[in-house]
């Protein structure tokens, strides 16, 4: 076997070529992650000139076990799991349904693909502004509809605010799920559907025995992206409802603790060491759920596709 990079010092060429990539990976990804892990054992506040002291596991103990604040954090952890489960399942189902419908060659397909994907290219602030105006409880479009039906809702200002954020999260990201499924559907040979039709298969049987198994790579990709994305989501909570007890998820707790917004307004009570500890807890949660999901999906893929 001939080594393709020559002899002597030329053998080091591939290693030298990957050095810039490794440097930037360490600079923007691995380095900050390691720094966060170190900060989680300190009382760092992120204020220039403020001393940083080593506190050991105190931040973790306070976050998980110390009084009412710890119970609130556990509640936020539970809401994060609920948010992940509802967003992942509904967004997955809607994305698949819309992708199948828009792959039938019906009139207006391009228009509706653009329409459903458009929220993805909007920023979180614009998405939040659109829904804040739509759900404005004093004369907004949604309020008028509810009043016409004889009801009343405070929408983002009431107890249902958490569920409205779920609706907006699904609306904002369903386009990505749809596009991945459409790409997967376009890789399935039409010959298989024609053969199934000749054999008398119904549409449901064609979907169950042809479409669903051959969509496995798209299914795996969408499930992983949906689960990890929803576990880390918090920006819409900030834009739509702010820090309100009983509605925040773990990602928002980290941001609020790190940048002094736990009172509903910006203060100088930064607790970035404590927030770093909370972010490590979230990282472990994402790691465990992500790895477990990936393991299950790989076993399913091996069983279906060999």
Please sum up the structure shown.
With 306 residues, the chain is an all-alpha fold.
How would you sum up this structure, described in words?
With 306 residues, the protein is mostly helical. The chain contains 13 helices and no strands. It has helices at residues 13-39, 58-65, 67-101, 109-121, 124-134, 141-148, 161-185, 190-198, 203-214, 216-232, 235-240, 250-258, 272-305. The relative contact order is 0.12. The model has no long low-confidence stretch (mean pLDDT 90).
Question: What characteristics describe this protein?
Answer:
single chain; 306 residues; mainly alpha; 13 helices; globular
Largest sheet report: none
How would you state the average pLDDT, rounded? 90
Helix content: 55-70%
Strand content: under 5%
- SSE topology string: HHHHHHHHHHHHH
DSSP summary, beta strand count: 0
Give the class from helix and strand content and strand pairing. Answer: mainly alpha
As residue ranges, the low-confidence spans are: none
What general form does the structure show?
A: globular
User: What's the gyration radius in Å?
Assistant: 24 Å
Distance between the termini: 31 Å
Compute the number of helices.
13
